[in-house]
TrEMBL record, chain B:
CDD domains: IscU_like. GO terms for biological process: iron-sulfur cluster assembly. Pfam families: NifU_N. It comes from the Bacteria. PANTHER family: IRON-SULFUR CLUSTER ASSEMBLY ENZYME NIFU HOMOLOG (PTHR10093). This is Nitrogen fixation protein NifU. Residues 6-128 form the NIF system FeS cluster assembly NifU N-terminal domain. InterPro entries: NIF_FeS_clus_asmbl_NifU_N. It comes from Planomonospora sphaerica. SUPFAM superfamilies: SufE/NifU. GO terms for molecular function: iron ion binding; iron-sulfur cluster binding.
Amino acid sequence: MTDVTTATTTGTTGTGSGERPVGTPAFDVDRIRKDFPILSRELPGGRPLVYLDSGNSSQKPVQVIEAMREHLSMHYGNVGRAMHALGAESTEAYEDARDKVAAFVGAPDRDEIVFTKNASEALNLVAHAFGNPTNSDPRFTLGPGDEIVISEMEHHSNIVPWQMLAARTGATLKWFPVTDEGRLDLSGIEELVTERTKIVSVAHQSNVLGTVNPVDRILARVRQVGALLMLDASQSVPHKPVDVAALGVDFLAFTGHKAVGPSGIGVLWARAELLEAMPPFLGGGEMIEAVWMDRSTYAPAPHKFEAGTPPIVEAVGLGAAVDYLSAVGLDAVARHERELTAYALQALRELPGLKVIGPEDLEDRGGTVSFTLQGVHPHDVGQILDDEFGVAVRVGHHCARPLHLRFGIPATTRASFYLYNTTAEIDALVRGLHHVQKVFA
Amino acid sequence: MIAESMYQELILEHYKHPQGRGLRDPFDAEVHHVNPTCGDEITMRVKLGDGGKVEDVSYDGQGCSISQAAASVLHELATGSTVEETLAVVDEFTRLMQGRGKVEADEDVLGDAVAFAGVAKFPARVKCALLAWMAYKDAVARSA
């Protein structure tokens, strides 16, 4: 990948924020871009690709692609059950990936990392443990009179599993409202999170607003009432250092494909004693200890939750992805995205009729910027940005329809940034938006 | 670029100045159709008269330029025409939209609706163009 050309997308990000600690190497976005083969391709008609949709799914570095190719080419076998060399190599690679992910998120114990197929499955797995007749642990009992608390800014994957849980147990679903600025409204937290609350599940960072939620304040109240706290960290883990032990929460879910890893693999982290108390999710191969015709006993976590042949190559890819991110440094990634976000918020202000949905300052905010453009529907914005400028953004409700209803809008256009994006790409977005306004003037 | 061919002047005109927009009485049937993938929606009312004459097509909704302009064009084409004639146009329009850009549009049948021919090249947008037309077909069926 040495002959890639980035001439059309080169940009500088040195905005002189002065936040880089002395002695750390400069973040070289041009060098990073060379690791991502797709960024040097052209779209039909010779358009350069300007990929601003990493909040939806990120692109993959050659290190991840090669690790997966190498595993498939030379080491592939089933894991945990094959008594031969390839089985051993595959098992080692799969379990190595678990070690890497555990270290990446600061899990105290590697067995606290459960591989799932995505963050949705991780959230469903936890929801399944509540109000389950096979689980008598008082922390997980749930029925009429008990309450589940989420928020209005959640992705559907952190709404629907809890709606389904409420429907099957008779428990009540409640939620934190969102302020006009796009922050969680915690003013009513004492009334919302009470002794009736069993589980609170909120986004660590909003996939629409970019808002980073105050985990400390929520956790303090959750602990006061003896409930459990889950974080949907799909939009935070890929972008900044996240340490589950430091956070002090109970459950955390994220997905590989947003973190320069492959699709098909997600992660649930939970405190070991909770995983031990939780019932299995799917039944099948490799999640058992012993099976009789009328009953089974189960393997300890994490295998209890990994029924069937897991996403082996995807786990290897995720291991390579967290290696890659660790080598670049999550602090550096976060700093780079902060610079991009500052640049974007400033640049978007020059467009008349553009309204940012979410915080307009950088405090507790990640690199996701959603907005509306007066008189133009986001689908038209997205179509013209893509077709004329090669700018890939996401348009629609981004799987957060209730949040859009809250703001009284059907849809937004969302630009989301990652370690490989440049200010030049944000300039391309702004140029594209000017053209959109011209077409619809 | 190809999207330019989709955003025909006629479509943009109808989007900015929709014809016959707003729900009106009396009506024989009212339907509400949504496109769950993008959230576009339309409420449509149809009032039929003697001999299958379409006396009024009124609608309200929200969505992208394609879906809203398609409703406006449909209103112009259908109002004053007959059910039989308009259903023939709906069929031709559907055939064009589902033709992946490879179907030659019959301008004699389609009239202004031929402006949507470019949309057929964008699979993700075909449903936008068809939303109002499918709602109309449904409303007419319910009026009978």
